[in-house]
Write a structure and sequence with these properties.
By secondary structure, this protein is an alpha/beta fold. The protein has one domain: 3-Layer(aba) Sandwich (Aminopeptidase), CATH 3.40.630. It has 5 helices and 8 strands, in the order βαβαββββαβαβα. The protein has helices at 21-31, 57-64, 121-130, 145-157, 179-194; strands spanning 5-11, 41-47, 68-75, 81-84, 86-88, 114-116, 135-138, 162-168. A 6-stranded mixed β-sheet has the order 2-1-3-8-4-7, with helices on both faces. Helix 1 packs across helix 5, helix 2 (57-64) packs across helix 4 (145-157) and helix 3 runs antiparallel to helix 5. The mean pLDDT is 94.
C-alpha cells in the first residue's frame, strides 16, 4: 500500500539571502525520524526563488498528491518564527533571484483577494513554543515570493492542510535557538500538521 506523502518545501537563494536556511531546515526536518510520521512518505522540494519558477508548484502538488504541505521561507527582517494565517493575491514589484519582476500586481486576476490557511494553526504554534522557540501567528505572508508560493499552493491543494512558516533572519532561527533545537521544533510542528491530514 502506498504511504501518503507529506510535502515539505524550502527555497533557494535570493537577493540578500545567498544561502537560504529554509532549504537546509526542510531537509533537516525530513531526516529526523519520528514514529508519529512513520506512516507517511516525506518529500522535500526546494522551490526556485523566481516569479516564473513558481508556475510549476501546482503541477508538483498534483503529482505528489500530498496529505499535507509544510512550506518554509525566510523573512530576513523578522526576529520570531511566524506562522502565516493567509496568502494575499498580491505581489510587490521586487526582483527575484534572476532580477525579474512579477508580471502583475495580482497573482491571479480572477482569484480571491486572500486565501486563508487550510491548516489549524494553533497546534503548530504550540509545537514551536514547546521547544522554547519564539513564535507568533502572523496575519499574512507578505507580498514577495513566499506569499506567491503560499497562494498558489493553497489554490492547488484544495482542502489539504497547507501551512507556511516564515523563519527569521539570515540563519532562519531566532536569537539563542540552536540548529538542533530548531530542527526538533519544526519536526514537532510537522507532526502536528500531519495529525490534521485526512
Amino acid at each position: 500500500m502506498t504511504r501518503p506523502t507529506l510535502l515539505v518545501t524550502g527555497f533557494g537563494p535570493f537577493p540578500g539571502v545567498p544561502a537560504n536556511p529554509s532549504a537546509v531546515l526542510a531537509r533537516q526536518v525530513a531526516r529526523l525520524r519520528r514514529p508519529a510520521l512513520a506512516r507517511f512518505r516525506l518529500q522535500v522540494e526546494v522551490l526556485p526563488t523566481r516569479w516564473d519558477g513558481l508556475d510549476g508548484l501546482a503541477a508538483l502538488i498534483a503529482r505528489q498528491r500530498p496529505a499535507a504541505v509544510l512550506m518554509l521561507g525566510v523573512a530576513a527582517r523578522r526576529r520570531l518564527v511566524c506562522v502565516e494565517g493567509r496568502a494575499m493575491n498580491a505581489a510587490r514589484p521586487a526582483p527575484d533571484a534572476a532580477k525579474a519582476h512579477p508580471a502583475a500586481v495580482r497573482l491571479a486576476l480572477e482569484g480571491p483577494d486572500a486565501r486563508p490557511s487550510t491548516a489549524r494553526l494553533a497546534p503548530l504554534l504550540a509545537a514551536l513554543r514547546r521547544h522554547r522557540v519564539p513564535a507568533r501567528l502572523s496575519r499574512d505572508a507578505g507580498r514577495y515570493l513566499c506569499n506567491a508560493s503560499y497562494f498558489r499552493a493553497l489554490a492547488a491543494a484544495g482542502a489539504v492542510p497547507v501551512a507556511f512558516i516564515h523563519l527569521p533572519g539570515r540563519s532562519g532561527r531566532p536569537r539563542g535557538v540552536g540548529s538542533a533545537r530548531m530542527g526538533r521544533a519544526l519536526s514537532d510542528l510537522l507532526v502536528a500538521l500531519a495529525a490534521q491530514a485526512r
